[in-house]
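Problem: given the chain below (301 residues), write out its structure.
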Amino acid sequence: MKKSMMQNTISRSLRILSRVCFILPLAMLLVTSCGPKKKVENNTILVSIEPLRYVTEYLVGGNFNVESITPREATPETYAPTVQQIKAIDECLAFVRVGSLGFENTQIRKVTDNSPHLYIINAAANTKKLPMCDHDHGDGHHGGEDPHIWMSPRNMKIIALNVYKQLCYLDQKNAESYKERLLKFSNEMNELDSLTHEKLDTCKNKAFLINHPALGHYACQYNLIQISMEHDGKEPSPKQLEAVLERCRTHGVKKIFAQEQHSDKGVKRVAEELGVEVHYINPLSYNWKEEVERITQILIE
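Solution.
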């Protein structure tokens, strides 16, 4: 009898100990995850590309230091951030990203996923999604999502709104100032959009060739046809090059663009065949508005 009572006592003790061992780590996890974010003294907001620095600096008005990760000569699809940049991301106050650029989903994501104190601002939230293709009636699909959302003035208004919401959260005392800047920026985008439509709507030739499909969102907004030289991010084979040339002839292409950060070998060969000029552009430029205006001017000349 005593032996049975002792066994029951030991059994109950083991069950209680087992529950404690389960509940205690869970409680610690809840306290950790629900607790306040680590206080960061750094006043820097980092962005993945220069166009995001353009809109973020416009909104902050000097209240924050805004810096970009990607240098001018690099392309986000293949760029590898330095050790110093990775450390800077971990130590900054907030990080503004598109969310679908190459290095955002590789090296930088490893840092952001392990930095609970870091505020992540998704610039692409609520923007229209497009497939990575040349937008010529669905032909030439490259697979994946087109990340070049910033090349559309309409999208830039949405990007500004996404950044504005987080700025008000981070710095409530200056919320009214951010609201005024947002309204001013939105008005500028409306004016740019209206002027661009006015110029391009009467443009007879709607097709253009580009080495890297960076103008998909721009083309979609203004009813243009983007023909891309790249196939799955690579230079075309001789057969593919001939197909691109034939499509350019079919659409009567007179304008050819080359993004500075990508190879211009293929578009130069097509330009020679068609007897037209190659125009070099930089969709990753900080001077974003001027670049959009320049692209529009080239198309209507």
